[in-house]
């Protein structure tokens, strides 16, 4: 108890005016207690005083910051750890969480607003069209679902400057996003321009909130789901499938090209090779024929007449050997007397008198 | 002893009650003015902290010193091109001079009525200057700035500072929305058609080019083949000519024999007389 008292004294030394504020109050309380006919009041009264003094202790958690007001006026910021303020009614302390990032949803609801859900799933969200539909700079309508993450950057400003910080963030976010989308083109919002829109919206929000001295830091603006309105979504999807069709047509054509050209080259090689084969065969045959002819000629020159006769007879023999060849031998006179009659229409066969000449 | 004690307790209770009549605190989020019989005392509002007043004759009125919200009802406004649109705005304001504020409008409710009036009419004026699409897209900032500045001027005499007027939503009337949807649809359909026809065009080009290439490849091959064949024929002819030129008669004879052998096959009828060369020895 002694120690507590000393601590209280120490607390008050740095201040102008030796008498601690609230001292009168304390004395009155003391007086009151003094006159109660409570058995053992000599013990109770100091105990109450100790309790009152102890009520000035408060803990600031690591993710918090302490803001102390004296008689309602902002007095000081305290850091995490155990702290002390002069008990009620002189000073009071609040400990807002300054490192916690809070999250607001726009255009859809997955959970109650303002709660940061780590296990956020987009699948279970519900769209809020009147909040999501926005006009773009090129006179299109787009549905934008986005989240805003914010934290307290200046506890003093946050607590004392703006009446309803969260409602303010909601208003500012809606206004800023619509302003930025109102300057953007729909195709950018739907595709590659998202990053820019996010950054621009974040900066605009920050600028507006700073102008209110709200003590709020916008950590991030994230576009969750941006899509064309339901009324025209089919047309947009068709554009995407048209793009795919287009590249499919080209791919098919290229596949056709890749199919027929090698085939054609193969065919070409075949044609050329066949011609080369023909040539090689023809040349070789002619060479063979020529050498055979020359060989025979050599022998022929040695005995012309007899060879000639031999070759002639062999040939005629081999012709007449064929049983299907009709042979008709007539005497010369008979041949001379017979009328040459050639029934061309009836005769399937042709009679050719062979006049082998010398 | 006992009466004294009671008196003492009574005194303490009275003193405590009296203290609240004399001492009061103003919170960091507030400003206060002291009224004496209904009239403000002094010419500035009290800052946060501990203050004193006279009991009974003076009382305290507190005013929120933070930036306050005024969220107006969405309003149908006619644009310069005679279209209606719903404009939803919000206003951030603060009581910057509590004394004036108290004498002119008294309370936050009173202030809101004034705000509603002035901002509504300013918004009408500003939005009425532009066409619907201008309001929606690139003239937004001008409108907000104009309304903020004008309202600020008009509300200053009431001890009110307009911090900011911003447009939240600008909803189109249904028929305008329908028109936009129709246009969007048409635009996308055109795009889709363009993509498909461009794809077809590219595809046709590629196919035609491929067919042409094939034709060229095959024609080249045929050409080469003919050249090669001709070369072969020429070589063969040369070889034959060289060999046969050495004995044309003999070739003639040999070739004739071969021709006979090949030509007189089945279905041939020979009529011969003993006079013929072949039958000479049968005479």
UniProtKB/TrEMBL annotation, chain A:
One of its GO terms (molecular function) is peptidase activity. Residues 1-22 are annotated as: Disordered. Gene3D superfamilies: Band 7 domain (3.30.479.30). Keywords: Hydrolase, Membrane, Protease, Transmembrane, Transmembrane helix. The chain crosses the membrane at residues 40-60. It is found in: Membrane. It comes from the Bacteria. The keyword Transmembrane applies. Pfam families: Band_7. GO terms for cellular component: membrane. GO terms for biological process: proteolysis. It is a single-pass membrane protein. Its main location: membrane. InterPro entries: Band7/mec-2_domain, Band_7, Band_7/SPFH_dom_sf, HflK. SUPFAM superfamilies: Band 7/SPFH domain. Belongs to the band 7/mec-2 family. HflK subfamily. PANTHER family: MODULATOR OF FTSH PROTEASE HFLK, STOMATIN-LIKE PROTEIN 2, MITOCHONDRIAL. HflC and HflK could encode or regulate a protease. HflC and HflK may interact to form a multimeric complex. NCBIfam families: hflK. This is Protein HflK. It comes from Pseudodesulfovibrio alkaliphilus. The gene is hflK.
Automatic annotation (TrEMBL), chain B:
GO terms for molecular function: peptidase activity. SUPFAM superfamilies: Band 7/SPFH domain. Keywords: Hydrolase, Membrane, Protease, Transmembrane, Transmembrane helix. It is found in: Membrane. It comes from the Bacteria. Pfam families: Band_7 (PF01145). The keyword Transmembrane helix applies. GO terms for cellular component: membrane. GO terms for biological process: proteolysis. InterPro entries: Band_7 (IPR001107), Band_7/SPFH_dom_sf (IPR036013), HflC (IPR010200), Stomatin_HflK_fam (IPR001972). HflC and HflK could regulate a protease. Belongs to the band 7/mec-2 family. HflC subfamily. NCBIfam families: hflC. This is Protein HflC. The gene is hflC.
């Amino acid at each position: 108890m002694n120690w507590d008292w000393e601590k209280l004294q120490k607390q008050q030394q740095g201040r102008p005016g030796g008498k601690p504020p609230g001292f009168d109050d304390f004395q009155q309380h003391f007086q009151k207690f003094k006159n109660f006919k409570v058995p053992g009041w000599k013990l109770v009264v100091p105990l109450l005083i100790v309790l009152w003094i102890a009520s000035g202790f408060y803990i600031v958690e690591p993710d918090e910051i302490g803001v102390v007001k004296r008689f309602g006026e902002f007095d000081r910021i305290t850091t995490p750890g155990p702290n002390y303020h002069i008990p009620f009614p002189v000073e009071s302390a609040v400990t807002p969480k300054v490192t916690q990032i809070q999250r607001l949803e726009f255009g859809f609801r997955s959970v109650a607003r303002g709660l940061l859900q780590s296990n956020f799933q987009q699948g279970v969200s519900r769209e809020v069209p009147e909040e999501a539909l926005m006009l773009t700079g090129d006179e299109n309508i787009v549905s934008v679902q986005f989240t805003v993450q914010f934290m307290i950057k200046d506890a003093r400003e946050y607590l004392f400057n703006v009446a309803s910080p969260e409602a303010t963030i909601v208003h500012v976010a809606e206004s800023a996003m619509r302003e930025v989308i109102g300057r953007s083109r729909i195709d950018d919002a739907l595709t590659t321009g998202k990053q820019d829109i996010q950054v621009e919206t974040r900066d605009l929000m920050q600028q507006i909130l700073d102008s209110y001295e709200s003590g709020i830091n916008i950590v991030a603006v994230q576009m969750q789901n941006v899509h064309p309105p339901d009324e025209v979504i089919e047309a947009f999807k068709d554009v995407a499938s048209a793009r795919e069709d287009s590249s499919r047509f080209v791919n098919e054509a290229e596949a056709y090209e890749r199919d027929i050209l090698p085939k054609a080259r193969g065919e070409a090689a075949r044609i050329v090779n066949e011609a080369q084969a023909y040539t090689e065969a023809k040349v070789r045959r002619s060479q063979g024929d020529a050498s055979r002819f020359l060989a025979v000629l050599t022998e022929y020159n040695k005995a012309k007449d007899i060879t000639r006769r031999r070759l002639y007879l062999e040939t005629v023999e081999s012709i007449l050997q064929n049983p299907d060849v009709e042979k008709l031998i007539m005497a010369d006179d008979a041949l001379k007397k017979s009328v040459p009659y050639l029934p061309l229409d009836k005769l399937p066969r042709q009679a050719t008198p062979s006049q082998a000449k010398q | 002893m006992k009466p004294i004690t009671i008196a003492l307790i009574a005194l303490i209770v009275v003193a405590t009650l009296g203290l609240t009549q004399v001492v009061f605190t103003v919170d960091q989020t507030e400003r206060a003015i002291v009224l004496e019989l209904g009239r403000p005392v002094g010419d500035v509002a009290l800052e946060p902290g501990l203050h004193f007043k006279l009991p009974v004759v003076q009382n305290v009125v507190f005013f929120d010193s933070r930036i306050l919200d005024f969220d107006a009802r969405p309003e149908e406004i006619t644009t310069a091109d005679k279209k209606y649109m719903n404009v939803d705005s919000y206003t951030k304001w603060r009581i910057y001079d509590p004394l004036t504020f108290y004498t002119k409008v008294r309370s936050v409710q009173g202030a809101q009525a004034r705000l509603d009036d002035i901002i509504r009419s300013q918004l009408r004026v500003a939005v009425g200057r532009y066409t619907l699409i201008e309001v929606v897209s690139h003239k937004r900032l001008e409108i907000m700035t104009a309304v903020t500045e004008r309202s600020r001027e008009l509300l200053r005499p009431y001890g009110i500072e307009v911090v900011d007027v911003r447009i939240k939503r600008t909803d189109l009337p249904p028929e305008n929305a329908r028109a936009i949807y129709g246009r969007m649809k048409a635009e996308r359909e055109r795009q889709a058609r363009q993509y498909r026809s461009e794809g077809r065009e590219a595809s046709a080009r590629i196919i035609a080019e491929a067919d042409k290439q094939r034709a060229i490849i095959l024609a080249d091959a045929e050409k080469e083949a003919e050249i090669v064949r001709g070369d072969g024929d020429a070589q063969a002819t040369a070889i034959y000519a060289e060999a046969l030129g050495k004995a044309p008669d003999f070739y003639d004879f040999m070739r004739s024999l071969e021709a006979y052998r090949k030509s007189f096959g089945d279905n041939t009828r020979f009529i011969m007389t003993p006079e013929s060369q072949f039958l000479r020895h049968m005479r």
